[in-house]
Structure formats: C-alpha cells, structure tokens
Automatic annotation (TrEMBL):
It holds the Pfam family Condensation. This is Condensation domain-containing protein. InterPro entries: CAT-like_dom_sf, Condensation_dom. Residues 56-291 form the Condensation domain.
Length: 440
C-alpha cells in the first residue's frame, strides 16, 4: 500500500460564532465525561465510487469534498471557547491518498484518535486508488470520518448522498439545508424557548419518580479496563422483531426498545424502568437534511413486566410502550442546560443523584418489514454468534444498547455495574425473549 496526500482549499460564504446547538451541547457534555477515550464518538462511512462515475481522478474527488465543506458549514466549524460554534470561512483540508489500500482498515485507523476540537477540521478524508501506471489516480473508495460535533448518523448520510450526486453529475443540486449557526439562533428565540419548556416539563415530571438509576449494584467482578462491548449477531432477532412489528402494528425499533427495557427490569429488579433512547429530532422539513448533530437522548419510562411470565406480558408492554415512545420523542428535542438543572434539582429534592445511565440507540436508517415462517426463525438461531470488539477505561454511561444493522445488537457496559458474564447473558436472553414471543 502506497500512501500519499493532498490538500484542498475551500472558501465558504460566511463565518461567525454562535452558541452550541442543543444537539452539539449534548454530545459535547458526553465527550467531556468520556475523555480521554472520546474517540468512542468518532464514526465514519466508506463510499464506493459509483460505477457510472468511474474512472474518477483524485483531483475531481477532492474538488467534490471541497464543495461539501463549503456547502455544509458544520464541516468547517470548530469548538470555540465557552464553548461555542466557531465557523470558519476558509481553510485547507488534508486528504490522504492510499493506493490499493483496504478501505475498512483506513476507516478504523482514521477513527482511532480523538479530534482536536478547537484546531482540527471535524472531517477526516482518505481516498483509495487503484495501482498501475495507466490508472494512477483512479479513485475507487472515499473514506470519511466525522467528529460527532459536526454530524450525527443522518447528517453523515446526507454528506454521503451529496458526494454521490457530485460524482455522478458533477454538481450538488438544490439550496443548502439549514445550518447549525441558524439553528442555534432559533433555539434562543421565543419559539425555541417554548419548545425547550415543553420538553423540560416531561423530564421534570419523570425525574421526580423514576428510580435514581438503573444499574445501582455491582453484579460481579469488573474487567480491566472496565468498559466492554459485546456484539450479538443474530438473524433470528431480526426475523423475530419483524414478525412482532407486523403482528402488533408497530415498528421493529419499538419492539426492540420494549424488549430491552423489559429485560433491564428483569436484571435490575426495578418495577419502573427508565431508558434514554437516542431521538433523531429530524421531524421538520428544515432539519431533515441538515448536516449537524441533532440527535439527543429522550426519556422512555415503562413499567416492567412481572418477574415471572415475562413472555406472557409482552403484548401488554408493547401497548404501554406506544404512548411512552411518543413522550420520549417529545422529550428528545430539549436544551441540555435545562436538563442539567432538572437533574441537579431532582438530586437535591430526593437526596440521591438521579440519572438512568441506561441508553438505547437504533442506528438503522430504514427498515423493510417482512414475514418469516416459524421454521426459518428457529433455524436462524444456529447462526447466532457473540464477540467482544471494544474495551476502554471511560464512558459517560453504564449500559448502552446499539442496534447497528438488521442482525447486530451490542451492549457497551461498565462491568463495575454489570459483569461481562451478565452482559452476555442479557444479550442471549434478549434473543430468547424475542424469538419465543414471535413463535408464541
């Protein structure tokens, strides 16, 4: 693999400063609590050059990257003091060029270190090229790594979409979407404060009555380092969740959130369970295609099933989950400073810190629900596997469930509060619950 590089210059239409948006502030608080392991929040995409655009040169792809940085202001925004958004009008972005490289390896390498939020552009780029003297600059893949302060998953998908359009058409059509600088100013307006007040009321009500935290007792010997991630690869879970979604007229995300929440109640013994699902907050036309970080934690509260007969109670739990999910969506678009105040007030009033430290993130962008017969679901359990791909010292949570694609669900846990053995047992119990309920 031969490595090289280039630098592209960009010039946007404006510069300026503004407060962090609610989404930026939420991830900034999480970054501070996770440092020095905050590379945990980096994420990326590998974009294969469309066949209809090949062959394409390094210079042409670099021009497209420059246009993206000019179009989407978040990609040239640093974190200034206070903190605040520091939008720069112009600059230079380094791009790595690697001949005959493995895109996945480049993605892992570029994601492995935390961003310098005050000095480094929040986008890292590498281009994979094919070898041979006649096709020296033929780009096959573009590797993009995002700082979470600049984009969430849906924001990154918009960048990918725009890049593909440029490669196919030579231009990015349409006006740019709403920019984070403008979004921050709206959030400080009377309309924005009314939105914040409505969300705060939901947090305030629930923080007065939920258990102080979900995982409040050590469950076994802690690992070193203590933060571990287990990934369950299970086609059976995927098929079972689809069947249950069809049966009860809901989404697979609601099915999975309900099952995750019910099992947290089983593990912890809490009759009422609070989970923080990540809400996209892209419900308006002006934010649907915005490149920024809009996702925030909502608050989902559900009475857990009786200790015996969880499966028989699952339909009732799903019925109770529907309004709870809507409340979680409404609570997700909130001012994190309001939430910090509510957390502090609840702790003073109750005499104990109040925070669920239990979250759920369905990172899938779309789902196609299909029916699967009983025998197919049963046979799929033979394909289940479990791996442990991550370990680190710090995390801003104790228990995080991620749904990364149709067949993969992971738990990232602080083993001081939930042992590795219990994490593995939790994931296998989750599969068992969903499959048994689907076959019931």
């Amino acid at each position: 693999m031969a490595l090289g590089g280039t630098v592209i210059s960009f010039a946007g239409t404006r510069s300026g400063t503004a407060p962090l948006t609610w989404g930026q502030l939420a991830i900034w608080q999480a970054i501070l609590r996770t440092a020095p392991d905050d590379h945990y929040f980096n994420f990326g995409r590998v974009v294969e050059v469309p066949r209809g655009a090949r062959p394409v040169s390094v210079a042409h792809v670099s021009r497209g990257i420059g246009l993206l940085v000019e179009r989407h202001e978040a990609l040239r925004t640093l974190v200034g003091p206070e903190p605040c958004q520091d939008l720069r009008g112009r600059g230079e972005l380094p791009i790595r060029v690697a001949a005959d490289a493995d895109p996945a390896s480049l993605l892992a390498e570029l994601s492995a270190t935390a961003f310098d939020y005050a000095e480094e552009w929040p986008l890292r780029v590498a281009l994979v090229t094919t070898g041979g003297p006649l096709r020296e600059e033929a780009v096959t893949h573009v590797v993009l790594v995002f700082c979470h302060m600049a984009a969430d998953g849906l924001g990154a998908e918009q960048v990918v979409r725009d890049l593909r359009l440029f490669l196919l058409r030579g231009a990015i059509p349409g006006d740019p979407p709403r920019q984070p600088l403008d979004l921050a100013r709206w959030q400080e307006s009377p309309d924005g404060r009314r939105q914040a007040a409505g969300a705060s009321a939901l947090w305030e009500r629930e923080y007065g009555r939920i258990p102080p935290t979900m995982f409040d007792r050590p469950s076994g010997a802690a690992e070193q380092p203590p933060i571990r991630r287990a990934v369950l690869t299970s086609p059976a879970v995927h098929m079972a969740a689809q069947r249950l979604a069809l049966r009860y007229g809901t989404s697979t995300s609601t099915v999975l959130l309900t099952a995750v929440t019910a099992l947290v109640g089983e593990v912890t013994g809490h009759e009422s369970v609070a989970v923080l699902p990540i809400v996209s907050n892209r419900f308006g036309r002006d934010t649907r295609t915005a490149v920024t970080t809009l996702s925030q934690e909502g608050l989902f509260v559900l009475g857990s099933a009786p200790r015996a007969g969880l499966g028989s109670a699952f339909p009732d739990l799903l019925a109770a989950a529907r309004p709870a999910v809507l409340r979680a969506y409404r609570s997700g678009y909130h001012d994190p400073d309001d939430r910090e105040r509510i957390v502090a007030e609840a702790g003073r009033e109750r005499g104990v810190p109040v925070h669920p430290y239990c979250c759920f993130n369905d990172m899938r962008f779309a789902e196609r629900v299909a029916e699967h017969d009983d025998e197919l679901i049963r046979r799929a359990r033979a394909e289940t596997s479990l791996s442990w791909p991550l370990s680190q010292n710090e995390l801003n949570c104790r228990f995080c469930v991620h749904v990364s694609d149709a067949t993969q669900i992971s738990v990232t846990a602080d083993t001081r509060w939930l042992s590795a053995a219990d994490v593995e047992r939790y994931l296998l119990d989750l599969e068992r619950l969903l499959v048994e309920e689907a076959l019931r």
